[in-house]
Amino acid sequence: MDSSDDDPRGPVEQTAVASDGANVLQAGRDLTVHVTRRRAVPAMESVSAPRSAGRIPVVPGLFVGRDRELARLAEAVAGSGRAAVVAVHGLGGVGKSTLAARFAASHAEAFGFVWWVTADSPAALDAGLAGLAAAVAPETAGLPPEERVELGTRWLATHDEWLLVLDNLTAPADAAGLLSRVRTGTVLITSRLGRGWRGVETVVLDALHPAEAVRLLTGLVRAEWPDADLADADALCAELGWLPLAVEQAAAYLAQARVTPATYLDLLARYPARMFSATAEGGDERRTAARVWRVTLDRLADTPLAGHVLRVLAWWAPEAVPRTLLAGLADEPDLVDALGRLAAHSMITLTGTTVTVHRLVQTITRTPDPHDPHRRARSIDVARDTAAAALHAAVLDLNPGLPDDWSHYHVLLPHARALLDRATHDTDTADTCALLHEFGKYLTARGDVTSAVAHLTRAVRSAERALGPDDPRTLRYRNNLAYAHWSAGDHRQAVRLHEANLADTERVLGPDHPDTLTVRNNVAYVHRGTGGLDRAIALHETNLADARRLLGPDHPNTLTIRNNLAGAHHAAGDLARAIPMYEAALADCLRVLGPHHPGTLTARVDLAGAYRAAGDVERAITLFEAVRADCERVLGPDHPDTLVALNNLATAYRSAGRLRRAIRLHEKVLADRGRVLGPDHPDTLASLNNLASTHWSAGDARRAIPLYEAAVAGCERVLGPDHPDTVSYRNNLAGARRAISHP
Known about the structure:
Elements: E1 12-17, E2 23-26, H1 67-78, E3 84-90, H2 96-106, E4 113-118, H3 122-136, H4 145-157, E5 162-167, H5 173-181, E6 186-191, E7 201-205, H6 210-224, H7 233-239, H8 244-257, H9 261-269, H10 274-280, H11 285-299, H12 305-313, E8 321-322, H13 332-344, E9 348-350, E10 354-357, H14 359-366, H15 377-395, H16 406-422, H17 430-445, H18 449-466, H19 472-487, H20 491-509, H21 514-529, H22 533-550, H23 556-571, H24 575-592, H25 598-613, H26 617-634, H27 640-655, H28 659-676, H29 682-697, H30 701-718, H31 724-741
Parallel strand pairs: 3-6, 3-7, 4-5, 5-6
Antiparallel strand pairs: 1-2, 8-10, 9-10
Helix pairs in contact: 3-4, 6-7, 6-8, 7-9, 8-11, 10-11, 11-14, 12-13, 12-15, 15-16, 15-17, 16-17, 17-18, 17-19, 18-19, 19-20, 19-21, 20-21, 21-22, 21-23, 22-23, 23-24, 23-25, 24-25, 25-26, 26-27, 27-28, 28-29, 29-30, 29-31, 30-31
């Protein structure tokens, strides 16, 4: 009575492309090769962190004042019992982070472990917790980020005598989930927010005392320029609002440019701005920093590339920008000189491979000011488009379907997301559209289908505006948007988009274009997956004849279409026709592509499924076990395609009567899919149904019923009450209930 033994999966992007990056979508158990090995997840409760694994920012060599605030912090921590949560809040640029770093460094010996997290967004907080997990247990470094977040949180919750710094937290709510679970150790929070800290000790941090600001400026300048004339240091500090960040920037400029505070004040006076006066009255850090930024760029007028580089950097994530992203901006000597001068003036921080820019500098740099020659609107727009083009160039030679390339996408993803968040779709260029498309495909391959749909939807919308609705690139973006909807379980939308795209592709490119073959294959596949078997078979037969004529019988795309046609006959119940077609397709894949090509692995999976359906269960199990081993070896145990292979093996065990083994495997698949794909993903719901059916096969209808109920409720919520999966699972539930009522 179980009609969902094998998971209904949508077409999966394959590494072969028909033309100019157009994806050939394969049958529903397609595999993508990813050479990784996953280590066992440690029991975090028993992991002890070495002191050397801790992380504290470097405390400035010159630290002035703040004695009262440091004492208040120590008092709050000491008086809070076993666990303490303290929030330092105040104006941006007032030195909250410096204070926290000073406290952490001076009290490091009192804690067994100190960890610093930049927590200015939920994603950044998660990244810090993921980094903590890798620091205390290095074997977790290769795990998915969300798993490392959970492991890091678990470690904190089961240990004490640690100090966790959440730096630049936007709001208390962003840490509420963490603090509700972690009630040991000490948490020190810095934030601009001064309200909403219910139940949390707070320390207010104001601007430096004027004498302290002067001492900070004087000490920093004289460390590099011992005989500097600093007669007007007090006036300069007052103009800067006694904000530590602005004072430090000014000191760096004075020391590098060898100018006096009086000269610096004169430069400021010649660039009046309404924002600056508000800051002098105790207002906004950005306005003071904007003034300092402008003066610094004026001093770099003989290196005009420096301003352009800074404007481009402003569109990416602030940290760990690969220097290679900037390579196309200018000749290497000019670029190196511009970066060096920006670093000398404290506008950026350089390593041999990366660039870091203060978030405040980025914000100001991206904000047009008609009175500031360095922040003209046109220059900022050019920088935005240059940043998009540089990211697009960085992924041109990558394939989002190849796991070997995923590490490169992972490095670039924060910068792509920052750019896309900061730009609006009406400013998207052809490069931005391509970037959205490439990262949408990457996110689909990694199982983040919600983000993938968002990226690809914007790619289509922007491409229709920037390129035109009939541009081949727009048609390709629509194809992969439809695929992402299928992967997300939105089959109706996927069918609608694929059908519309096929009509447009045939009209624009003609019936014999390689992209048309790709789209036609996809339309056939989604019809097969939604029960439209007559149309699916007819489309596949037409496509196969055209592929043989246009591409040749041994082309990878032709082999894919052959296998998909066999799959359509399989879905129609014609195994006598499907099995010989599968066997012939597999033989040719082995000959042409080799045993480990994704197309070959797909053919092996499909043939094994056909053997099981035909009753040759032991033969199917042998083949499924071999494919499962290959998937785990090359893709890793958490890859969605590995989980498909494991699910199919479990189903084959059930067919063979090996019910205990089948139950164990189905339980594992359900747990892994819930963790990797989420509880509402169609594959997770299918695993609920399959586990329920295996319990029912074992005669345990009472255990099966709650699982069936959960599967039905999830499908009704996610897929709708009339979706074929919903109807199937509902029928299974009804059968189990009848078995209970009439034993």
